[in-house]
Amino acid sequence: MEAQQHTVHNLIVHQLIKDPHGPASIALRPGEMRVSAAAQRLIDHLCLRYAERTGKGYGRFEDDEDNFPMARFVRQHVVEQSIDFITLAQLMMQHLQVRAGEEQLASGGYVLIARVDAMGRDVLLVALITETVGTAITEGLDIIDSVHLDLGNVRVAGRIDLEGWQRGAERYISFLKGRGDVAHYFKLFLGCNDVVLALKETQKLVQGLTQFAERQQLPNDTRDALFERAHGYLDEAGSDGEPVSLDVLVQRAWPDAPAELRNQFAREDEGAVSGGFIPDRRAIRPLTHFKASAEHWKIEFDRSSLRSGQVIYNRENGTLVLTEIPDDLRRALLGDG
To answer: Which InterPro entries does its entry note (predicted)?
Structure first.
């Protein structure tokens, strides 16, 4: 993905103070931040890295706004306009403090909250960013420690598609899965119901692989090899009851250039695939099988039969020829004749 500038409407940074196994507290900035060149670069970088990450969770607001108040906060700010952005961010931080305090392994950091136009979508972005120590050279050519934000290791972040939410989209919240316990508390903070329908997610995964093959204009043999490798991994995961890892999938299915396939799944629309579901083995059959029907017939065959010549497709006249007809079918056809 190419870097691009995002329109930042509102931006504020607060601080979550917490050590693992300790209590949580917050330090609030009194007002919004000016969108300086440095702040713009930070937002651009975060949006880009967030979009590139696979294995995110997706969902929608929980109905219970008493225990999951994020929907109410957002509605008050976006729809009713009864609270400003500063109040919205403060309410969010108070709720984050509660949720982080419930998770022993959660740790603190700087909490960036921004309303951004990202790729034409009005979104609310929340990211917890920690500091790390690097090395710098001074004007006097001395080597010193340099404390900076660890943007390459953002593990806690989420995004609410405000337009998708208002039009009643099926899923409009996403969050980084990260470590299980940490991801869980942040999901609760967002008020995200991420019930995953394995069949539907598997179908979207198969569709994404098909779209990738079409966009790359892969030769038939290369496309079939891609599908067979993907099918092998997904069938194995489904049989063992193991959740899908999109990172493992792209490495297994497209090992020579996994980043190309990873970009297919680095998307934020309703076609985005949620990581962590157990693949439905029924839904991966199109990767190795063709199945079709018309008013008077049905047919299903393996993709490999096209390569072996057992099934021959003529593009010019649109005919499909089956060879090596089994004896029982041959007898039935003769009997019908």
So the answer is: Nucleoid_associated_NdpA
Spell out the domain ranges in the chain. 7-193, 198-281, 288-336
Encoding tokens for residue 248?
A: 């493992």
120 sits in the region (left: phi over 0; alpha: psi -120 to 50; else beta) called left
Question: HEC profile for the chain?
Answer: CCCCCCEEEEEEEEEEEECCCCCEEEECCCCCCCCCHHHHHHHHHHHHHHHHCCCEEEEEECCCCCCCCHHHHHHHHHCCCCCCHHHHHHHHHHHHHHHHHHCCCCCCEEEEEEEEEECCEEEEEEEEECEEEEEEECCCCCEEEEEEECHHHCCEEEEEEHHHHHCCCCCCEEEECCCHHHHHHHHHHHCEECCCCHHHHHHHHHHHHHHHHHHHCCCHHHHHHHHHHHHHHHHHHHHHCCCCCHHHHHHHHCCCCHHHHHHHHCCCCCCCCCCCCCCCCCCCHHHCEEEEECCCCEEEEECHHHHHCCEEEECCCCEEEECCCCHHHHHHHHHHC
Please give the chain's pLDDT, 337 residues, in tens: 445 679 999 999 999 999 999 999 999 999 999 999 999 999 999 998 888 887 788 889 999 999 999 999 999 999 999 999 999 999 999 999 999 999 988 899 999 999 999 878 899 999 999 888 888 888 888 898 887 788 878 889 999 999 999 999 888 999 987 655 567 899 999 999 887 778 888 998 999 999 999 999 998 889 899 999 999 999 998 888 788 888 899 999 999 999 889 888 876 666 678 777 888 888 898 898 887 788 888 888 787 777 777 888 887 888 888 888 888 888 888 875 4
Copy the structure tokens of residue 222.
């290369």
Return the structure tokens found at 290: 């063709």
Residue 192 pairs in a beta bridge with 61
